[in-house]
Amino acid sequence: MPEIEAVTICSSSKFYDTAQRAEAAFRRLGMTVYTPRYDFNEQHVQVYESDKIQLTRDFLAKIAKSDAIFVVANGGYAGVSVCIEVGYAVAQGKVVLFSEQPTEFALRALVDAVIPIEEIGPGVQSATRAEVAGRSR
Residue 46: inside a domain, yes or no? Predict the structure, then answer.
C-alpha cells in the first residue's frame, strides 16, 4: 500500500494548541496536513448552527482528500463531532490514528494506532498503512 502523504487532524476546539503541535510534526515530515478552522475555536467565539453545518461539511471533504486522520484526544477525550469524523474516516477506508487511547470503548475498535504527538516521525507514514492492510473493516 502507498505511504500516508496527507493527514487530517481532528480535534475538539479545547485542544487546538495541541492540534497545532501535531500539525507542525506532520508538516516536518513533508506531509499535506488539513486542520480544523482554528479561527472557529468555540472556547473564544460563538459558533452558530449554520456555521457548524458548513464547517462539518467542509471538514468531511478534508478527510475525503486524506490518507489518514490523526485525532488529538487529550485524556482520551473525543467529542461528538470528532466521533462523527472518525466514523466517516473509517467508512472511507482511511487510517485512524489517535494521540492517546480513547476513553470511549466503541472508538477503540476503530483505532489503527495510538501515536503520542512527541512520537510522530517518519515511521508513521508506512507502519500504519501496513497495520491497516491486515485489519478487516
Answer: yes
Contacting residues for 9 by C-beta, under 8 A, at least 6 apart? 19, 22, 23, 26, 33, 34, 35, 36, 69, 70, 71, 72
The CATH code of the domain that includes 103 is 3.40.50.450
Condensed to tens digits (0 to 9), the pLDDT of residues 46-100 reads 667 777 788 889 999 999 999 999 999 999 999 999 999 999 999 999 999 999 9
Do 34 and 65 touch, CB atoms closer than 8 A? Answer: yes
Give pTM, 2 decimals: 0.87
